[in-house]
Amino acid sequence: MKTTEILAKQILTEAKGYLNVGFTHSLNPYSGCAFSCQYCYVREMPIQRFKDIPWGEWVDVKINAAENYAKEWKKLRAKNKPIHLFMSSATDPYQPIERQAEITRGVLEAMMECPPDHLQIQTRSPLVTRDIDLIKELTKRSNVIVSMTVETDREDVKQIFAPYAPGIRLRMKALQEMHQAGIPTQASISPVLPFTPDFPKKLLGIVDHIWIDTLNIGDGASGRRSKSLGMPELFKEHDLEKWYRPNIHRSVEKYFKTVFPEEMVRVSKEEAFLG
């Protein structure tokens, strides 16, 4: 893993495309990602396509992220602009190196003095529980939700598509800890991967919302990026092609609503923003 400390010119990026459903900005404390999920749409974005190092083998650490956030927050507030943040859209804010670097924690600390109106923390790392103290305090100042990516409840499936990502059981345990601490939580079934019939029941009592997303509606290019990444072939190789359907989100939505109240189940992208 090549790790490089950098000074970012800015930390907030105006929300466009997929996030333009209520979010005003995305916030990425890092560039690159150690989890290296096979289906990650960022692999097909310029940030990686023009990089000479494979995705999953590099992470840039934005050491001035907290400082930049405070400055940019003040400028936006001076113009009476709303601040609805998605953290993060092109990385995971809880990279393994976050244990030492504490860039994301530093940003959260800055938010205590400069709170956004809304913050969605999007991660697949149980490391988020380290910051329960800050996040819980921040809920008094902002509308906060911790959205944990749990794309399946099958560890064998996770190993095919995301072998370097944290284990599913650990993620569910993290969701439970956050929920028990009184922090709003969401399970992001993103992207939908093959799961067991008991998957919805395993999430009962530990989440406030379910967010369903797929490789066809959630890669920012109507499935073209996922196709370029070889996802149809990977599903077929493991006899899982029935799960790679353009409208599978409708079947999954209907199934989750047999366990959860209708208002708790949302579908990407129009319902992605929990304002």
Describe the protein.
The chain is an alpha/beta fold and 275 residues long. Helices cover 31% and strands 17% of the residues. It is built from 11 helices and 11 strands. It has helices at 46-49, 65-78, 98-101, 103-113, 132-138, 155-161, 168-180, 199-203, 224-228, 231-237, 248-256, and strands at 2-6, 12-14, 25-27, 30-32, 58-62, 84-87, 118-123, 143-149, 185-189, 209-212, 265-267. The strands form 2 sheets. The protein has an 8-stranded mixed β-sheet. A 3-stranded mixed β-sheet has the order 1-5-4, with no helix packed on it. The N and C termini lie far apart (37 Å).
Q: What's the total helix number?
A: 11
User: Alpha-carbon distance between the termini?
Assistant: 37 Å
State the share of residues found in helices, binned by percent: 25-40%
Instruction: State the major sheet.
Output: 8 strands, mixed
Strand content: 15-25%
Mean pLDDT: 95
Which stretches of 5+ consecutive residues score pLDDT under 50? none
Which structural class is indicated by helix and strand composition? alpha/beta
- Net shape: globular
Number of strands: 11
CA-based gyration radius: 18 Å
Report strand order across the widest sheet. 2-3-6-7-8-9-10-11
